[in-house]
Amino acid sequence: MLFTGYGKSFSTQNEAQYDTIGAFWDQMARRFGRENLRGLGFGWGENSIEYVIGLKEGDMDPSLDWESAVYRQVPLPDDGWIRYTGKTDELPALYDEIYKDGPLLYEIEAFWEDGGCEILIRR
């Protein structure tokens, strides 16, 4: 699978990524609609994560101008994903459950206007 969209690096210090990635989601959702998007987290460093937001179906125009975000194409495995569902306002607790089994290679997140979310992970 090839994940395409616009991405940035985000700090993970003091769980800052929840607010900063949330703001990036809000920005992209204003243009494309939250339920049309999915986000990919990968490339964790000691204090950072790479995060790309793309469309659930189709591809974004690679020539768009997004405040410091760049167009990315990330090849991903087709299988071996584990699915979690929950509520967006309980995301830190959901990630506590996910991370109890160790670090991830990839996460794909989807959010709905009703407050629900789906997270696919791969270790």
Spell out the key features of this protein.
single chain, 123 residues, alpha+beta, 7 strands, 40% strand
What does this structure look like?
The chain has helices spanning 17-32, 91-99, and strands at residues 2-11, 37-42, 48-55, 70-75, 82-87, 106-111, 116-122. It contains two helices and seven strands, in the order βαββββαββ. It has a seven-stranded antiparallel β-sheet with strand order 4-1-3-2-6-7-5, with helices on one face. With 123 residues, it is α+β, with helices and mostly antiparallel strands.
Summarize the structure.
The protein has 123 residues and is of the alpha+beta class. It is 20% helix and 40% strand.
Q: Label the structural class.
A: alpha+beta
Shape: globular
Uncertain spans, ≥5 residues at pLDDT below 50? none
Q: Bin the helical content.
A: 10-25%
Q: Classify the beta-strand content into a percent band.
A: 35-45%
Radius of gyration, Cα only, in angstroms? 14 Å
Helix and strand run: EHEEEEHEE
SS field, number of helical segments? 2
Which strand order does the major sheet show? Answer: 4-1-3-2-6-7-5
Largest sheet report: 7 strands, antiparallel
Measured between the Cα atoms of the first and last residue, the distance is 16 Å
Q: What is the mean pLDDT?
A: 93
By DSSP, the count of extended strands is 7
